[in-house]
Backbone:
């Protein structure tokens, strides 16, 4: 349970930081860099989610295969 709450806060924190970076870069007129920052933030969050899904599927596999 504790791991789930920490992961949610990490994802939310990354989203807030990336949104601020995007806004600052867009205000400076560097929209290309702002889009790249958003894309990189999205990839980082997706890697975190994929890692958590992998752990979930391993747990489900151990439960149903009794290993």
Residues:
């Amino acid at each position: 349970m504790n791991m789930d709450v920490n992961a949610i806060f990490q994802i939310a924190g990354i989203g807030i930081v990336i949104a601020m970076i995007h806004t600052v870069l867009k205000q400076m007129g560097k929209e290309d860099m702002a889009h790249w920052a958003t894309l990189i933030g999205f990839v980082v969050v997706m890697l975190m989610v994929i890692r958590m899904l992998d752990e979930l599927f391993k747990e489900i596999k151990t439960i149903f295969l009794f290993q």
User: Anything to note?
Assistant: Residues 2-65 form one domain. The mean pLDDT is 90. The longest helix spans residues 31-65. The two ends are 23 Å apart (CA to CA).
